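Worked example 2:
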Amino acid sequence: MDQITIQSPDDMHLHVRDGAVLTSVVPHSATQFARAIIMPNLVPPVTTVKQALAYQQRIFAAVPPGVKFQPLMALYLTPTTSRNDIIEASKHPDIIGFKLYPAGATTHSEAGISSLTSIYPLLDAMQEYDIPLLCHGEVTDPATDVFDRERLFIENELLPIRQQFPALRIVLEHITTHEAVSFIEDNTQNTVATITAHHLLYNRNAIFSGGIRPHYYCLPLLKRKQHQQALITAATSGDPRFFLGTDSAPHPRHRKEATCGCAGCYTAHAAIELYAQVFDDNNALDKLDNFASKYGAAFYRLPQNTGTITLHRQQWECPKQYDFDRDKLIPVGAGDPIYWKLDVS
């Protein structure tokens, strides 16, 4: 198969930052995806409907003329979030859910939650008003091995939440382990996961190939090959509980290539092509349409997109860098070949 046409896809987990850099990164996503769920971990965080809608307008302003792209907004769950915030969010069609960041888990997560049991009343309200919980699934105890943080979050935090709030719709974001795959498979109701292109394409060897490679450093971390294979199997299985979410996370080059570099991989430049590469490599191109375009929309109860995109089997070289305001942005796979190409004619 040298060409594939699929329904216009959705990115169910995307970071675009704010300010001048929006014009560098939003067009990459807007030319591939019909919609994207925008993460709220700005500084200060996006915690209210009013803030989210203002942020949405700034994103709209960065969309190229003539391109249809719908940013859907998530709100940042904090210790000051109230029941009224949840009720207000549930009434607005462009507010898709609340994002749970354990405090200190990742970039700009300082405003997150230190004790998950303390927000059980909020989770009860989210269950009542049927608004999803989007989880960055890692514990933050500094004594924990960083490669075990996702597994322990599932065992110690997420399983009790799942049992306590059976009707709460939960998304375990950017899963990285076979334990996460098993958790989703074992919880058949109201429990789904997003999977990134970089966790499908790479394992932790990529971070250390020929030296420290900071542009492959993300959180949750890339794991062993056995975990990578579990993710590939889940993504290409046709199971509707697994769907596309890039977690594309842009950082300026000077903040990635630093003594203490930022976590985040940038894949929005070629996201759908990278996913196509994985599905092609695993003889599953026929499953890409559902994974990228249908399953996420069904979980979030969104109408199915009506447009299509076409990809061609064509080798091209990933750009080594992009402009990023006054700095540069280094994408994942900079200078490497990519084997599928989006038709943008």
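The first strand starts at residue 3 and ends at 7. The two ends are 20 Å apart (CA to CA).
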